[in-house]
């Protein structure tokens, strides 16, 4: 079968590889779409702290079940359309025993540590499947995994009604955090995005924005909050300048979350966090329950919020290099999806 294999950092190649062989707990999936994620670029560049090569990239996967384990009598059927939670936990480490399998000490992820979805077929544990409603189009359903991340971010950050929110980065991650923040009752949500075309797209989705090359974030904070600071500050850009500015933008007793997964080191002044008693929150993945709740949010709100507009680029598996270059150069407005049956 055809698959996009990351052979080494910066070396992605469309190859012929053997079909995956499911074990006694796995389903075989014919991949319809794979979504391109910013974390794929972190892996591609060799910046991810635990990624391994060679690996078939992609953890945002929509497809149809080809086979199920022998004797399986659960809710899923051959031919059914499904999304896949890419988290593979060991089930016995200290984190797993505490119910934190998504940060398992031996964690593996489809598309990062084991072969993922930029292929004609993939395999996944049947306990990681989630079936979207039949009436949600494929090009919306593929957003299920990103919305699972967004749902988990909301649980971690505990937004309160009326909270003033600042988000650095207006790519897909920043946009779905803004969408969730408004849905969870935030009072004012502002995204900072330097890419002018992307900023305009975010505005078209009903989210307030600034271009940081034209509007200083600290001046904005003083205007919006009277100088007290935002209740919650998120960084989705991974830019050192944005990360280092987070405590300056956050109010005393507020919260800050960085969604970056890079192993890059910053000279961060931790005293700024301590002096203001800011809560610094990490965020990585999600539980199966979070995954399913993120998909349910998407099902319930995609028409009302126009979430089908978030898929802005559609490419084939044979165009995977183009997708990578678009992500690196920032020419995509929002989500790129890959048709994995077309090469």
Please explain how this structure is put together.
The chain is α/β, with parallel strands linked by helices. It has helices spanning 38-44, 94-97, 138-141, 144-157, 172-183, 196-204, 217-225, 240-249, 270-275, 288-305, 320-329, and strands at 2-8, 11-16, 26-36, 55-56, 60-67, 81-84, 87-88, 108-109, 121-125, 129-130, 164-168, 188-192, 208-210, 230-235, 250-258, 279-281, 311-316, 335-339. The protein folds into 2 domains: 2-131 and 306-339, Medium-chain alcohol dehydrogenases, catalytic domain (Quinone Oxidoreductase, Chain A, domain 1, Alpha-Beta Complex), CATH 3.90.180; 148-281, Rossmann fold (3-Layer(aba) Sandwich), CATH 3.40.50.720. 30% of the residues lie in helices and 27% in strands. The strands form 4 sheets. Strands 3, 5, 6, 9, 10, 17 and 18 form a 7-stranded mixed beta sheet that branches. The model has no long low-confidence stretch (mean pLDDT 95).
**The CATH topology of the largest domain:** Quinone Oxidoreductase, Chain A, domain 1
**Beta-strand residue percentage:** 25-35%
State the low-pLDDT regions, or none: none
- Series of H and E elements: EEEHEEEEHEEEHHEHEHEHEHEHEHEHE
What is the level 1 CATH name of the largest domain?
Answer: Alpha Beta
Rounded to the nearest angstrom, the distance between the terminal CA atoms is: 11 Å
Supply the CATH superfamily name of the largest domain: Medium-chain alcohol dehydrogenases, catalytic domain
How many separate domains make up the residues?
A: 2
Q: Which value, in Å, is the CA radius of gyration?
A: 20 Å
């Amino acid at each position: 079968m055809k698959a996009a294999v990351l052979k080494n950092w910066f070396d992605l190649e469309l190859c012929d590889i053997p079909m995956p062989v499911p074990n006694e707990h796995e389903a075989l999936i014919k991949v319809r779409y794979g979504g391109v994620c910013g974390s794929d670029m972190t892996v591609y560049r060799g910046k991810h702290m635990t990624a391994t090569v060679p690996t078939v990239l992609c953890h945002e996967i929509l497809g149809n079940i080809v086979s199920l384990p022998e004797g399986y009598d659960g809710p899923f059927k051959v031919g059914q359309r499904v999304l896949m939670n890419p988290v593979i936990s060991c089930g016995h480490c200290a984190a797993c025993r505490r119910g934190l399998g998504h940060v398992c000490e031996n964690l593996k992820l489809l598309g990062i540590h084991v072969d993922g979805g930029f292929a004609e077929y993939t395999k996944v544990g049947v306990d990681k499947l989630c079936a979207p409603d039949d009436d949600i189009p494929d090009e919306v359903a593929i957003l299920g995994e990103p919305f699972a991340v967004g749902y988990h971010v909301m649980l971690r950050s505990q937004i309160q009604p009326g909270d003033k929110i600042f988000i650095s980065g207006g790519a897909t991650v920043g946009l779905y955090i803004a969408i969730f923040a408004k849905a969870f009752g935030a009072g004012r949500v502002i995204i900072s995005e330097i890419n002018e075309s992307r900023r305009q797209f975010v505005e078209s989705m009903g989210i307030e924005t600034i271009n940081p090359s034209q509007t200083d974030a600290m001046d904005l904070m003083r205007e919006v909050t009277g100088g007290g600071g935002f209740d919650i500050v998120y960084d989705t850009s991974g830019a050192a300048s944005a990360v280092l500015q987070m405590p300056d933008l956050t109010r005393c007793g507020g919260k800050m979350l960085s969604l970056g997964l890079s192993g890059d080191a910053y000279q961060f002044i931790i005293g700024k966090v301590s002096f203001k008693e800011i809560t610094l929150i990490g965020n990585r993945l999600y539980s199966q329950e979070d995954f399913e709740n993120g998909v349910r949010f998407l099902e319930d709100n995609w028409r009302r919020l126009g979430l089908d507009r978030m898929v802005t680029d559609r490419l084939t598996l044979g165009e995977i290099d183009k997708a990578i270059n678009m992500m690196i150069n920032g020419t995509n407005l929002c989500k790129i999806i890959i048709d994995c049956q077309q090469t």
